[in-house]
Design brief:
By secondary structure, the chain is an all-alpha fold. It folds into two domains: about 120 residues, Serine Threonine Protein Phosphatase 5, Tetratricopeptide repeat (Alpha Horseshoe), CATH 1.25.40.10; about 120 residues, Serine Threonine Protein Phosphatase 5, Tetratricopeptide repeat. The protein has 14 helices and no strands. Helix 2 packs parallel to helix 4, helix 8 packs antiparallel against helix 9 and helix 8 runs parallel beside helix 10. The radius of gyration is 19 Å and the shape is globular. The two termini are about 25 Å apart.
């Protein structure tokens, strides 16, 4: 059920979240927009090329630097990503969302403590528009370290901040299962499904947790629902595989 770090696509969608928008030439802005489109659609090399050209035209635009960082992160070029994100923050210290991206890059580079420090700084900043993401990122960092107690605490904090955000429900369930609290994980995932009906990842996770709890009939119902909601997507395919393991 564990989810990886915030996807580059999702990060690209909040490139316009900073409180101060730097103005650049129309050509540079067009390159930036094209880069975002390429990144969203998985064409990382093309995105990187557009962001580089935009940043060359206007090296003082923090959005262009964030775009560069996202593209470098998608290629696991952590050193370059870290440099770009730090440049974005240098250009606009109020661009709090970039701290989440910088934290991810630091974790990816192996500097886990540095990454968690950035997540905490983002969460603690009163201007942060999405503290639930920062809390979720902290939870995921602790979960990856198998520190299930702190992971559960931060995932719960994320849920409390935004009950319509699916990721922390998934992480919270993983942490609780890690602590041997399968029944409690089921309860939390049921809350997630109630808050976000039809989310295939939550349905899959709930079906898997119910399977672990030995509640096979309920597990089948949720897994079949996940398949219906996402027949060709990753959650639906995983649910179909899990169904094969259920007793007849």
């Amino acid at each position: 059920m564990s989810r990886t770090a915030v996807a580059a696509v999702g990060a690209a969608l909040v490139l316009v979240a900073a409180p101060v928008r730097a103005q650049s030439s129309p050509a540079a802005e067009t390159r930036f927009s094209t880069g975002v489109m390429h990144l969203r659609e998985g064409r990382v090399d093309l995105a990187l090329d557009e962001f580089k050209k935009a940043a060359k035209e206007d090296p003082k635009n923090p959005y262009f630097q964030k775009g560069l960082g996202l593209a470098y992160s998608a290629r696991s070029q952590w050193k370059d990503a870290i440099a770009a994100f730090r440049k974005a923050l240098e250009l606009n210290p109020y661009y709090v969302d970039v701290r989440n991206d910088l934290g991810m890059a630091l974790v990816g580079s192996g500097d886990r403590e540095g990454g968690k420090k950035e997540f905490l700084a983002a969460y603690s900043d009163p201007t942060n528009p999405t503290p639930e993401i920062s809390a979720r990122n902290l939870g995921q960092a602790y979960l990856d370290e198998k520190n299930y107690v702190d992971a559960a605490s931060w995932f719960q904090t994320s849920v409390n901040r935004n009950r319509d955000y699916p990721d922390p429900y998934l992480g919270l369930a993983d942490a609780l299962i890690g602590l041997g609290k399968v029944d409690e994980a089921v309860v939390q995932l049921e809350k997630g499904v109630a808050a976000i009906p039809g989310d295939p990842a939550l349905l899959l996770a709930l079906g898997q947790a119910l399977y672990k709890a030995g509640r096979f009939g309920e597990s089948r119902e949720r897994l079949e629902e996940a398949v219906r909601k996402d027949p060709i997507g990753p959650a639906g395919r995983a649910a179909a595989e899990q169904l094969k393991a259920l007793p007849k």
